[in-house]
Write a structure and sequence with these properties.
Layout lengths: L3 H6 L4 H5 L2 H9 L2 H20 L9 H16 L7 E2 L3 E3 L10 H11 L19 H11 L3 E5 L2 H13 L3 E5 L5 E2 L3 E2 H8 L2 E5 L7 H7 L4 E7 L15 H10 L3 E7 L17 H6 L4 E5 L10 E5 L1 H9 L1 H5 L4 H14 L5 H4 L1 H7 L2 H18 L4 E13 L2 E16 L4 H9 L5 E2 L1 E3 L2 E5 L8 H12 L4
Parallel strand pairs: 1-14, 2-12, 4-7, 4-8, 8-9, 9-10
Antiparallel strand pairs: 3-11, 5-6, 10-11, 12-13, 13-16, 15-16
Helix pairs in contact: 4-5, 6-15, 7-15, 8-9, 8-13, 18-20
Bound molecules: pyridoxal-5'-phosphate (PLP).
Length: 468
Amino acid sequence: MNTKQDLLRKIPSVEHVLEQARIRALGESLPRWAVADAVRTVLAEIRSSISSGRRSEGPDLEEIVTQVDDVARVGARRGIRQVINATGIVIHTNLGRANLSHEAAAAVQEVATSYCSLEFDLETGKRTKRTRHVEKLISRITECEDAFVVNNNAGAVLLGLNTLADGKEVIVSRGELVEIGGSFRLPEVMDKSGARMVEIGTTNRTRLEDYEKAISPTTAVLLKVHWSNFEMTGFVESVSPGDLAALAHKHGLVMMEDLGSGALVDFSRLGVAKEAMPQESLRDGVDVVTFSGDKLLGGPQAGIIAGCSNCIGRMKLNPLARALRVDKMILAAMEETLRHYLETDTVFEKVPALATIFCKVDELEPRAGRIAAEIAEAAGEDVTVETGRAESQVGGGSLPTAGLATSVIKITSTRYSPDEITARLRRGEVPIIARITDDKVIMDLRTVRPSEDETLARNTVVALAGGG
Ligand SMILES: *Cc1c(COP(=O)(O)O)cnc(C)c1O
């Protein structure tokens, strides 16, 4: 009978494991630090399982080497990497929101690896503002006087409120005190901005008189916030941006609108309710609109501020602007994305978010059929694969009730539960993110890029196979 001490003494040293031929070979293809980390992790696990009594046999070198191989491969992987989005949620915040166009990605690549004209005017040879090119494009597309770009829309709202209403009152409807995905809650951002929130109306109804009655000598801003991720129907009333802007101007106040997504193109041609457009709000008299760069716009993460030059000029001088500053890669991607919008006949093909949202189910169906057939052929007897129709979602807090008709692959297996299948799909060479509905694993083709079809089929077959 081995005592714990005997077993512990039999654990090889890190050096000894590193000298094994298989581990040395592993070091050729993987970073040395990953292999060394893996050896330490595996040995520590063995030590702890012996000490706690979970293990009563001595360590086996062969077994250690095999475990190190597995752990090192996982440990060597970059944490942030490509996944296949088979959820059908187009603007999926957890999966990185909008994919960039090839042109935008190429622009990022170019400036990422070289010096660039970030804050340097090539005409005059003098220093200049980094956001100037993007501002010009936003002003042109949304027909506004001035624009600015910050880190994200939450930052845009913070900068806007802090600049326009620090120590003053901001009037907002109770029906618009929204939360967007956990960390953005309008009242909390307002609080951090230094503005004092004055809530008016009720959850479902707020009228123009409610705003008017609440205006005081310390009021600075009338704020409107887009519902984004929910809808309200029934006994509902709210004030249009135009009417609110007119009221603000009558009292010498600023009207600001947080549009959330802010669609630069008309989404009503999807055949569903249209998403608010910044150009329309600005035309209706709104002084400042803010919206995200990586929601329906389809660009990189950014917060866009557009509107009157007086308000935005003040925001640019606010010290917070520096804290919310965007880098050269964001600006390159944003400029290239906005340039797509200048070509109205190709923008729906060029910007991946738009192409994905507007893609017709007829285009998805043949792809689903091909992939399903490939999986069915290669997978074992235990697997059932079907195709069918379902609904995809726009996501990103946009058009929450707009279901986009889509084509899906449905998978079940007698060997693995749906939860086990989705877990195995996530652990693959290229992780696949799927969902479960009615005890079936569902892969929505809308958000799978056609160039990923092969990989999706192959990795699904691997995930459904035994072992691992
Ligand atoms: C998404 C959203 C935000 C936050 O935008 P980020 O770009 O994610 O910071 C703020 N307000 C509304 C209404 C939104 O929909």
